[in-house]
Amino acid sequence: MDDPQPPRRRPAHRQPEGDEPLTARSPLRLRAVLSGIALLAGTVAAVLFALSAAHARDAGPWVAAAICAAVALIAAIDLVAIARRARG
Fold first, then answer.
1. Which of 44, 49, 66, 85 is packed most tightly, with the most Cβ within 10 A?
2. pLDDT single digits (tens) 7-45
């Protein structure tokens, strides 16, 4: 009897198909720059809002500080993901 053929393995590095240029570059560098800017801006804004919240009577500045801190945290996580993807 004929043995079924084993499934074909995908090559580790494939050539681009279709109209994609052979010199296409990965957007990781731009993504890293934008995440770095978001990390810096989010951290600075969170600190400034937290300092102003110390003198305010309402919760508005604390909410703004928390949102800015969340943006900085997401940017930091994205930078870690970019670094891992760039390595392997």
1. 49
2. 666 556 666 566 766 666 678 889 999 999 999 999 999
